[in-house]
Amino acid sequence: MGLIGAFGGLLANAQCKTFALSDRGDTLNCVDFKGMKQGPWLQKFPELRGNPGYDEEGTYLNDKKEGVWRKYSEQGDIMAVESYKWGLLHGKCSYYSLLGLEREEGWWAIDPGKLYDTIDVPDLFTDGIYHKVVIKNEGRSLRQGTWRTFDPMTGRIASTQEYIRDSAVSVLGSMGIKTKQPANGNNPGDTTKKKVEKPNIVSEWEEKNKGKKKVKVRDGSIGY
């Protein structure tokens, strides 16, 4: 095993209830005396219900995935590179096929220590306006940032969508380019009255009779 391997084994014995050693003598798959996974892990998942098997490597912190995790096919081809925080997806994640990169995602993990959190939600009708919303923490990640799909044959971007705390926003709007308003031209939150344009014939009549005494109009009623 060598001096380094022996030292790694001693360290693992001191901190881990169970563990494994790599070919280089590094400690892997440590389970501490509280039963929690810690440090570097290599996990193998066999084929299941027609889904191919794969290997996964990354780091655990107090039984939760932390930092960058990579997933490989049984043939050693990269399948995914994901980022985690508190055991939840957080940051940029990339997914691959045999032909190359297929999609990129962005995620935002909510601190599981909070019962509620405040997030900014973009206004649906006004660019650059955000509303603070208090949400209950359900232990999940929110879509955040730019999501892209690619043509793996050419590497060209096939589609793009922008998200802010799980709300889809206009890509043009996120770059400061004005987007279309609702068809009726009204913002749902706008309570101001729109000015009603007068027909030309009414405007001409008012101009012609401006300054004159009120013109009475006989309407056929009794007593005129």
Summarize it:
By secondary structure, this protein is mainly β.
Descriptive terms for the model:
mainly beta, two-stranded antiparallel ribbon, about 220 residues, 13-stranded antiparallel β-sheet
Task: Describe the overall structure.
The structure is a single chain. With 224 residues, the chain is mainly beta. The protein has one domain. The protein is built from 3 helices and 15 strands. Strands 1, 2, 3, 4, 5, 6, 7, 8, 9, 12, 13, 14 and 15 form a 13-stranded antiparallel beta sheet that branches. The chain has a two-stranded antiparallel ribbon with strand order 10-11. The longest helix has 14 residues. The N terminus and C terminus are likely disordered.
What is the number of beta strands? 15
What level of helicity do the residues show? 10-25%
Percent of residues in beta strands: 35-45%
Structural class of the secondary elements? Answer: mainly beta
How many DSSP helices? 3
Intertermini distance = 120 Å
User: What composes the largest sheet?
Assistant: 13 strands, antiparallel
Q: How many structural domains are formed by the residues? A: 1
Which radius of gyration do the C-alpha atoms yield? 32 Å
Mean pLDDT: 78
Provide the low-confidence segments as ranges: 1-11, 171-177, 179-196, 215-224
Layout of secondary structure:
Blueprint: H1 2-15, E1 18-21, E2 27-31, E3 37-45, E4 54-61, E5 64-73, E6 78-85, E7 88-89, E8 91-97, E9 100-109, E10 116-122, E11 130-136, E12 141-143, E13 145-150, E14 157-164, E15 167-169, H2 171-174, H3 200-208
Antiparallel strand pairs: 1-2, 2-3, 3-4, 4-5, 5-6, 6-7, 6-8, 8-9, 9-12, 9-13, 10-11, 13-14, 14-15
